[in-house]
Amino acid sequence: MKIGILTSGGDCPGLNAVIRGAVLKGVRIHDDEFVGIRNGWRGLVDGDFMALDRHSVRGLSKQGGTILGSSRTNPFEGEHGGPENIQKRLDAQGIDAIIAIGGEGTLAAAQRLTDAGIKIVGVPKTIDNDLAATDYSFGFDTAVEIATEAIDRLRTTAESHGRCMVIEVMGRHVGWIALHSGMAGGAHAILIPEQPQTIEQICEWVEHVRDRGRAPVIVVSEGFLLAGMEEAHSHKGLDAFNRPRLGGIGELIAPMIEERTGIESRATVLGHTQRGGAPSAYDRVLATRLGMAAIDAIQAEQWGSMVSLKGTEIEIVSIKEATGGLKTVPQDRYDEAAVLFG
């Protein structure tokens, strides 16, 4: 069987490990051939392919980013978009099936193409950990490790100067990165999209920390809403999907804290540092296992399916199940963390 592999959407630590796992298992166990599709769905629409063999994936598990490139492209748009044109591209290359590695948008497009008759298996990718039907997605652990290290570093300067540090992490709709890195880094408050808070409550936590002789450390998701806000803070325009480019809520909150408490406050936006660089050991293993499982799903002709982590086992689920709704931070997990606030 000849299999095409693409990585779509934002880059993420572990993408290359998925590619390596899929290629090595496919070649060794099933004598499959592989074709790399450059720059996500754009490469599939434009017919931009590259050779992909065992030599191409050598040593890839530790490498960040994606050797295939990525883009935020809608495969149904443009002169060469749509399932009929895409199928012609695949037929011309002799490609029998596609492994699509990506997040919610990528998998939603994969489902539509599958419904139109194209043979696709999905692999979940998101540092936000917001995809349903999988306990964890690769890239999340690396993002949490990077954020935790930043919190540890910023705490030392906070203590040295008696400042309040506000650390902004990624998380458009869900607060998993903030929750995990905040708990790991001993944050005195964790602010996430699922739990709007008033500035008065935030300042109360900050003052409790100061009164104990400590320097407050606040972790906030980029999509956090202060009570009364109707949409997440954005001042950077729109992305390729016409969504607001988030970022800057920490810089909005820090001066408000300083004004109300008199505590010198600083904001640090971690931004894309959370998704760059080498993946953690956990993400390398998870990504490799998911890539190998994608080959199993293809051999079983489970089109429209996605590989998934349930507990410690890799399972096959439907893409529809995975894209049916966001996996948000449940109330009990936030309540658990809130015991440590202030």
TrEMBL record:
**Record-listed E.C. numbers:** 2.7.1.11
Which residues are listed for ATP binding in this entry?
Answer: G10, R72, T73, G103, E104, G105, T106
Q: Tell me which InterPro entries the record gives.
A: ATP_PFK, ATP_PFK_prok-type, Phosphofructokinase_CS, Phosphofructokinase_dom, Phosphofructokinase_III, PKF_sf
Q: Which reaction does it catalyse?
A: beta-D-fructose 6-phosphate + ATP = beta-D-fructose 1,6-bisphosphate + ADP + H(+)
Gene field: pfkA
Catalytic residues?
D128
Classification via Pfam families = PFK
The text of the family note is: Belongs to the phosphofructokinase type A (PFKA) family. Mixed-substrate PFK group III subfamily.
| Known cofactor(s) | Mg(2+)
Q: Which EC class heads this enzyme's classification?
A: transferase
Domain Phosphofructokinase: residue ranges? 2-298
Task: Give its localization.
Answer: Cytoplasm
Specify the protein name: ATP-dependent 6-phosphofructokinase
Q: How does it assemble?
A: Homodimer or homotetramer.
Instruction: Please tell me where substrate binds in this chain.
Output: T126, I127, D128, R163, M170, G171, R172, E222, R266, H272, T273, Q274, R275
PROSITE patterns per UniProt: PHOSPHOFRUCTOKINASE
Protein species of origin: Leifsonia kafniensis
Residues given in the record as Mg(2+) binding sites: E104
- Site (Important for substrate specificity) at G105
